[in-house]
Design goal:
38% of the residues lie in helices and 25% in strands. The chain is of the alpha/beta class and 248 residues long.
Length: 248
């Protein structure tokens, strides 16, 4: 398919214009005009770029791209090497950040809910990025953490009362520890996100609401996987997800 066709489709599907984000969403680096072989991953790291080159990909699709707000704009060192890899091999780079967190069918948060067998029934927080729902059957927080570890293949950090019986849950993938107080105010028993801050422990202890840091990378694999699978099905593209391990 044509690159312009893919760009229009992704922008119509994910609606990046609805979001106030910290980076440009969509086509970040222009490569070949024809798209047929795509490598997807969580972040546009050098390892992912090198893997795309090995697979003779013409397009890379990620959740965490480049050109973040506040970064040094000079193309030197690591930035120069990454950009040179794309330009030398004429590879397109697409990135969708908050639009992929939020999408109701393919997004990171809805995919987490499906994996963990949680039923969403509401949204909260800035730009409705946080999700709220309930478990099929109540579980102690400690047991829920064990299930999350098995599902995401990464041991999460549980803060607060491990024996708290969890019926209502709130979650937001990635680095959304700043939304913990908003989740508490919504009357949930546990809040799951990717990372924890120093204050997360105190809030969990003092509020009685358990906190689960499941890993930024681990909680954000599934949206980009779902999006790549969707593109493969819709356009008969060769789409390959590459999981570059990250313990954070």
């Amino acid at each position: 398919m044509k690159r312009e066709e893919l760009t229009r489709y992704l922008e119509d599907l994910l609606e990046p214009g609805r979001f106030r984000d910290y980076c440009p969403n969509g086509l970040q680096v222009e490569g070949r005009p024809e798209v047929s072989r795509l490598v997807a991953g969580v972040s546009a790291t050098q390892r992912l770029l090198d893997t795309a080159v090995e697979h003779a990909a013409d397009t890379i699709l990620v959740h965490h791209g480049w050109f973040w707000r506040g970064e040094d704009g000079r193309v030197t060192g690591i930035r120069k090497t990454r950009l040179q890899t794309l330009l030398c091999h004429d590879i397109n780079l697409y990135a969708f950040h908050l639009p992929l967190d939020s999408h109701p069918e393919l997004g990171n948060n809805v995919q987490l809910a499906r994996l963990l067998d949680w039923t969403p029934d509401g949204r909260f927080g800035e730009q409705d990025l946080g999700w709220i729902g309930h478990l099929t059957a109540p579980l102690p927080a400690r047991e829920l953490a064990e299930r999350v570890a098995l599902t995401l293949q990464r041991p999460p950090l549980l803060l607060g009362d491990g024996e708290r019986l969890v019926r209502r849950v709130a979650w937001c993938s990635g680095g959304a520890q700043g939304m913990f107080e908003q989740a508490i105010a919504r009357g949930v028993d546990l809040y799951l996100t990717g990372e924890a801050s120093e204050s997360s422990t105190h809030l969990a202890r003092e509020s009685g609401v358990a906190y689960l840091a499941a890993g930024h990378h681990a909680s954000e694999r599934y949206g980009i996987m779902a999006l790549a699978a969707h593109l493969a099905e819709c356009f008969n593209l060769d789409c390959r997800f590459v999981d570059v391990d990250n313990p954070v």
